[in-house]
Amino acid sequence: MSDDESSTSSAEEVEKEEEEITDLSNSDVCTKYQEASKIVNLALTGLISQCVPGASVLDLCKFGSTIINTSASKLYTKKVNGAVIERGVAFPVCVSVNDIICNHSPLESEETEPLKAGDIVKLDLGCHIDGYISVAAHTLIVPEAAGSTPEVDPEMGNLGVAAYNAMLVAAASIKAGTKNTAVTDVVNRVANAYGVNAISSVRMHQMKRFVIDGVKEVALKDPTADEIEAGEEKVDECTFEQAEVYAVDVAMSTGEGKPRPSGVLRTTVFKRNVEANYKLKMKNSRYVLSVVDKQYPTLPFTLAHFDDERAARMGVTECLSHGLLAPYPVLHEQKDAKVAHFKCTVLLLPSGTSRVTGLEMPGYFKTDKQPDEETQTILKELEEIAAKKAAKKAKKKKKKKSGN
To answer: Is the alpha carbon torsion for 285, 286, 287, 290 positive or negative?
Structure first.
């Protein structure tokens, strides 16, 4: 072997050794997911406190984004190989009210009704640290005044319990070796027990670094023959593996469970289609694509974050027509239907599945209905695990306090 060949071989070996590990087998990656998760839960908690009569949906979206970006900016401040580590919003803060299911992030120019007591509010958001994404969604009822407990009718109370328990049981069912079809069955079992409908077309997704909607998916319910004929695709069967990360996304309704694009509310959330390229003709379109490629090359964004909102609204049309962007349309249920939406992030660790985002279900969601026996067993096990963790944490806190 010549000196040149030896040098090339050594360089390749070094490059191979230095190849970055981007799944949960890397402890640094786990830490980044955990830190992003803390920020997600912090943002949700802050937003809940602001959901009072008179609150502006636009202001809530801004408030949530500020919490995420400010909190993330304080972490990992050292440059790596001369570059700043990317961090901040991974999915735009969306505030969807009443029959609106998801993806509502209004623009400055759009007037939306302020929140009022009794409104059903769904909060949805995400944060990333170095591309490692954590997401969550939460449902609440706007109280009469800050700090008071809202009045909830039995139908909504039952729906809230059903959606939250479905999320818990689905999260516990996502473990190495299990198939996605088993999780779909679990969600349907819970929905049937409580007499509600899972929202068709809502999917749970695997998440990877800078990828919020990976190839592996879980359907909340299988599409009917009519829905398949209408263009909805059946989710391919897959098996979960250790070191993977998933967004466990559950939306349920007292209505038909069939989402409809809004005919009134503008779609403002989009994601770059990284595989598509086209030489745009309009100046505003080129402006939009330039900002997206520079600031949001892989993760979803909202037009509300553009400096020139008018140009963004005008330019997005050509980008969409040539497949450069994928829309996240504002979806509605049928009028007067109630909707609940809960989402959490789970990490498939060697010790088991760990749920790292998502808050406790509001105590005012109650029902007399009981889930099936298998679901009850899983929920009881989860309660016992949570109680043990709480006791261990309290003991550790007490010991630390006495040590001081």
So the answer is: positive
